[in-house]
C-alpha cells in the first residue's frame, strides 16, 4: 500500500503540554502536508513542507521532514482544549495525487 | 475569497436506491476537484479527481461514478447503492498539481 502511516493512533495529553505526531511514507515525495479534522467536519490544511525543506513553523505548529528516513513529525506546542481533533499527514508524489495517512486522534484535556 | 459547498449534509438511503451528491466551488476558475470517502475513524480514500470539465479520473473501481458538467461543479453518483457505500464523503479543490487542498463540509451517507 502507498498509504502513509501515522503514530500514535491516539494521543491524550493535558492542556499546556506539547503533542507530537509522526508520519512515515514509502516513496519519494514532492511535498508533505498536515491537515486537521474536527469530528464530523471537513479537513483544514495546516502546513505544507516541500521535499527540500527540513523544518517549518506556523504559530504553535512545527513540522519536520526527514526524506532519508521518509518520515515527518508535527509538534503542537502549549496545547489547548480546542486543539482536540484528528490530524492527518498527506503526501504528494510526482505520479499521484494526495495520499493520506490514517490519522492521529488528539485529545487535549482541560 | 473561495468557498466550497457540499449538499446534502446528511443522507439516509435504502440499498439499491440512486445517489447524487453535489459539490460547487466559488471564487476560483479551473480548479482541480476531488471526491474522497472516509470510513469511521480512518483516513481519506481518493475516489475521483478532475482537472477540467468532462475530465474524470477514477482511482478505485467501485459502484460510484463522477461527472463535472461545469467548471466549478462536481457530482458523485450511483445507480444502485450498496451497504458498503456508507461513509463520509468529502469534496475538495486546489490549483496546481501539488498544492494544498481545500475541503468542503462533507456529506454523511448511511445506506440501510
Description of the molecule:
The complex is a heterodimer of chains A (110) and B (112). Chain A has 110 residues and is an all-beta fold. Chain A has strands spanning 5-7, 10-14, 19-24, 31-37, 43-50, 55-58, 61-66, 71-76, 85-93, 96-100, 104-109. In chain A, strands 2, 4, 5, 9, 10 and 11 form a 6-stranded mixed beta sheet that branches. Chain B has no helices and 11 strands. The mean pLDDT of chain B is 94. Chain B has strands at residues 3-7, 10-13, 19-26, 32-38, 44-52, 55-58, 65-70, 73-78, 87-94, 102-103, 107-111. Chain B is an all-beta fold and 112 residues long. The interface between A and B is medium-sized, with 24 and 23 residues.
Which SSEs are present, and which pair or pack?
The complex is a heterodimer of chains A (110) and B (112).
Chain A lengths: L4 E3 L2 E5 L4 E6 L6 E7 L5 E8 L4 E4 L2 E6 L4 E6 L8 E9 L2 E5 L3 E6 L1
Chain B lengths: L2 E5 L2 E4 L5 E8 L5 E7 L5 E9 L2 E4 L6 E6 L2 E6 L8 E8 L7 E2 L3 E5 L1
Parallel strand pairs in B: 2-11
Antiparallel strand pairs in B: 1-3, 3-8, 4-5, 4-9, 5-6, 7-8, 9-10, 9-11
Amino acid at each position: 500500500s502507498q498509504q502513509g502511516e501515522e503514530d500514535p493512533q491516539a494521543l491524550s495529553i493535558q492542556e499546556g503540554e506539547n503533542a507530537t505526531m509522526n508520519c512515515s511514507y514509502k516513496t519519494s515525495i514532492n511535498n508533505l502536508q498536515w491537515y486537521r479534522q474536527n469530528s464530523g467536519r471537513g479537513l483544514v490544511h495546516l502546513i505544507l513542507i516541500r521535499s527540500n525543506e527540513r523544518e517549518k513553523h506556523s504559530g504553535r505548529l512545527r513540522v519536520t521532514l526527514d526524506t532519508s528516513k521518509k518520515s515527518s513529525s508535527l509538534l503542537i506546542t502549549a496545547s489547548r482544549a480546542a486543539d482536540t481533533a484528528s490530524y492527518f499527514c498527506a503526501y504528494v508524489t510526482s505520479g499521484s495525487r494526495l495520499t493520506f495517512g490514517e490519522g492521529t486522534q488528539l485529545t487535549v484535556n482541560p | 475569497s473561495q468557498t466550497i459547498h457540499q449538499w446534502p449534509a446528511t443522507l439516509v438511503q435504502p440499498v439499491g436506491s440512486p445517489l447524487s451528491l453535489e459539490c460547487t466551488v466559488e471564487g476560483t476558475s479551473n480548479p482541480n476537484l476531488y471526491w474522497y470517502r472516509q470510513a469511521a475513524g480512518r483516513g481519506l480514500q481518493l475516489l475521483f479527481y478532475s482537472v477540467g470539465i468532462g475530465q474524470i479520473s477514477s482511482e478505485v473501481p467501485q459502484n460510484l461514478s463522477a461527472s463535472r458538467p461545469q467548471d466549478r461543479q462536481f457530482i458523485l453518483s450511483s445507480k444502485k447503492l450498496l451497504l458498503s457505500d456508507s461513509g463520509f464523503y468529502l469534496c475538495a479543490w486546489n490549483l496546481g498539481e501539488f498544492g494544498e487542498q481545500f475541503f468542503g463540509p462533507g456529506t454523511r451517507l448511511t445506506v440501510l
